[in-house]
User: Fold this.
Amino acid sequence: MPPARASTQNDLTTQLREAIARGRLLPNERLIETDLAATYGVNRAHIRMALAMLDQEGLVVRERNRGARVRAVSDDEALEIAETRLAIETMIAGQAARRVTDSDRKALRAILTRMRGCVDGEDYAGFSDANAALHREIQRIAANATASRIVASLKSQIVRLQYRVILLPGRPALSLAEHRRIVETICAGDRAGAEAAMRAHLTSFLRLLKQAIAAAHHGGF
Amino acid sequence: MPPARASTQNDLTTQLREAIARGRLLPNERLIETDLAATYGVNRAHIRMALAMLDQEGLVVRERNRGARVRAVSDDEALEIAETRLAIETMIAGQAARRVTDSDRKALRAILTRMRGCVDGEDYAGFSDANAALHREIQRIAANATASRIVASLKSQIVRLQYRVILLPGRPALSLAEHRRIVETICAGDRAGAEAAMRAHLTSFLRLLKQAIAAAHHGGF
DNA sequence: GTCACCCGGATTGTTGACAATCCTGTCAGC
DNA sequence: GCTGACAGGATTGTCAACAATCCGGGTGAC
Assistant:
């Protein structure tokens, strides 16, 4: 089932990026230009271009005359990425606290309410969506396009690992509490508090990520 | 004077990146594929690829059917970039403090000595080099490739502005003191201290950057 | 004088063909 | 049985030609 034909270069790159992030293209899987071109209904040159960009982005590795593969992020790299994300998103939370307006406050609290509903209803997919929406909203408020772009790029490299953490028992409830504190500090315009709250949240995430990785090593699967 | 022929795709991209960073290609300057191909002695396809990667990297903007231009970072963007860099490099300093070894300590102190020599001899170019070397060394010690890559990319977008700050009167001496504190805290394995020292250093840099931008606005030149 | 229109040059977008390279399996020699 | 050379196919790298698009200037109507 070939995906819808990509109209522009950017669309194609986005499609490939999502295919990797969603796991439709697996780590270390070879990305053969001719095949991809046929699958997406475009010319090889487009694929070549998209692969070059995804290479630059860190989602794909290319070796001369050997082709491209989906980059397999090692455990160490995953932690590196998560820590870097922590540093940037902490800053973003602080900036959001400085710039927050009344309508922003309303939007943040609305998403938080949605999250609580998902926790009560044990709707994990919905919770995950609301989670992403909240972080996106905070980024929008912070209005730091550079940082947002980088965070997006980092996230796409470790999305698959995130699911392992989200599905841990009791995680959503704890996560909700952490997010509530983030929202409240940002709404209060408390920059240092927002930074601390976001740092605490992502540190907690990082700790669980480490545990998940260690568990997988011991033969989880 | 055409630069040496680029042997590989990566080399070409690097050459273009440096040409932009060094100011040989000015902001908003049109990057005409045919011309660049002739200049660098390669095919248009290579140029096209390199431009796509630099676009992804944020050094170049491309509009469909309109070609590519060197991206002009606005003042606001410059501050965004500097703040993001601050957040990441602060984290890097902390990681370096955790991982530092004896040989690392020696290397750090050697660079510091070099910096002091440049300050005494009023060798601004040398100071700038030593400065870069020190930051590179700290990144090497932190061993966070992801973060290092991002910082490099951010730096390349605002290198030109850095010169304005470095050349301010009294800046090198102050900068030296800041760097000394960074080195000492890292050598002591004092993570929080290293983070604080790096944050102080880059905050000081950021403040001067803001001043330089404001000054330029009032008609400096 | 101004506006709309159109045309030609310049530039980018797209495509297919060919060359270069790498990987795999096979076979001869030891 | 093992090693090395070698052929064949698969895949990427390179290139030039053609198509599509944009931009500027000029022309004519009003």
